[in-house]
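Because showing beats explaining, we let one protein speak, sequence and backbone structure tokens together, and leave readers to judge.
___
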Amino acid sequence: MLSWRMLFIGVFYCCIKTGAIQGQSKALFPAASRIQRGVVNPVFHDSFDDTHLFFEILLDGIHFEANGECSVRDAELASLRKTQILDVICENIIPKKLTDIFKLISDLSDYHGQLHQDDFERTLLTMVYTVQQVVSSTTEHQRDVWVESFVSLYKAIKQDLTGTN
């Protein structure tokens, strides 16, 4: 599981380093445009230090509860103000229903150009959520569907980073 986390972090880190990102015409995460706890279109990373903090949080572990809440396992990290923004993103913006995730996958496959950093970050967090759902699936069919969604999100991220299919 740690190797998957390292992969996710490496992919996220590479996106931060890619530089300018082109505009988009359709919102991939429509919930982000709504006001959430006083924050409009919340984004976790504003600086390179935020990327390191995000890396540390993912290594420590984010856990998604059945009721949609997310929690950071380390109490010190969880108490940071920046982590509250991550809570808003995880709880209110990233999709949690399979239908919403497959809609995101469809929108990503129709998307041309590079993703905005905030969309990349949210897609990465959606991948983390899908991995947790794979682990907690109770039936083989559920597991297969969650694995399919994870693989599709991975391919979208890979395509965004490499510019290839």
Observations:
- The first strand starts at residue 35 and ends at 36.
- Residues 17-25 have pLDDT under 50 and may be disordered.
- The CA atoms of residues 13 and 156 lie 16 Å apart.
